[in-house]
Amino acid sequence: MIDVSAYAANSAGGPLEKTTIERRAVGPHDVLIEIKYAGICHSDIHTARNEWGHTVYPVVPGHEITGVVAEIGSEVTGHAVGDRVGVGCFVDSCRKCASCEAGEEQYCPNGYVGTYNNVGRDGKRTAGGYSTHIVVDEYFVLSIPDGLELDAAAPLLCAGITLYSPLAHWGAGPGQKIAIAGMGGLGHIGVKIAHAMGAEVTVLSQTLSKKDDGLRFGADQYYATSDKETFRALRGRFDLILNTVSAPIDMDRYLSMLAMNGTLVELGLPENPITVSGFSLIRNRRSLAGSFVGGIPQTQEMLNFCARHGIGAEIELIPADKINEAYERVIGSDVRYRFVIDAATF
């Protein structure tokens, strides 16, 4: 076993605190990663505060991890000591089902193993990237291309693949009109990726406060959803809408902006069930769908794509002792656009 420094939540109402955790010894197919950066995802906050109701304490969050290989197992072939690598939302799956064999491990019907707050095949609970080191099976370790800075690449391991996967699945490209609803930690990366794919990109945000940023990231248009005229002006316009907003929205109004055969993809996780009128779907033969991150092959594809196009997250780098403050700022939408922790401060 390896003892490493980490930050953990010990209760739903308490702060994250510095601690020491154990990592397993490096097995034949394992990679020991010296973590350099860990992104803060809103999912970390939901889990740390037990807002989804399944947290087991203590919990070490973090599934946007970048670092350097420090040691490899005797049978590892895909990574070498010194390689720049990353780890995303899961660290194992059954590897036998149709989903896993297709490289869609995130949809494993037997359950993938989450990077934290989950139980691994060894029966022990997983601990995430708010730590100095992590041991991961080589298959679930991603290569970070040289064209990406490790700090700006960290949020790509969750936020980036969350947007890339539906854009790729629904064939985003030249001639397509795509809307990104929400210009936060998810949405701003989606704008960059959709633009790089060649689509016409529109941002739908509550206000115009981030319009200059949106246009700089590659948006062709930027509309405020607080203006009722927006929904009239954009009726029937889009082939694809990606909703990154976790707060409740009037889904019928957003569906009205889809062209014939258009699709609205739900990426956010609102607290309450989504309600939709059947009429909103049958008109224009619209579809309402969902998408969840991406498998290991597609995540590597995303990283390579982002490196080719110079796409990284817009980040604010913080020391570990600012994690609790950062959580409050995320809740207050006081970040442009993603917090990343410097793991040297753990």
UniProtKB/TrEMBL annotation:
InterPro entries xrefs: ADH-like_C, ADH-like_N, ADH_Zn_CS, CAD-like, ER, GroES-like_sf, NAD(P)-bd_dom_sf
Catalysed reaction, written as an equation: a primary alcohol + NADP(+) = an aldehyde + NADPH + H(+)
Pfam family, one: ADH_N
Keywords: Metal-binding, Oxidoreductase, Zinc
Annotated TM spans: none
Entry's EC annotation: 1.1.1.2
Listed cofactors: Zn(2+)
Keyword Zinc appears in the UniProt entry: yes
GO molecular function, one term: zinc ion binding
SUPFAM superfamilies: GroES-like, NAD(P)-binding Rossmann-fold domains
Domain annotation Enoyl reductase (ER): ranges: 14-341
Source superkingdom: Bacteria
Family stated for the protein in its record: Belongs to the zinc-containing alcohol dehydrogenase family.
Entry-linked PANTHER family: ALDEHYDE REDUCTASE (PTHR42683)
Protein known as: alcohol dehydrogenase (NADP(+))
Organism: Rhodococcus xishaensis
Biological classification of the source: Bacteria, Bacillati, Actinomycetota, Actinomycetes, Mycobacteriales
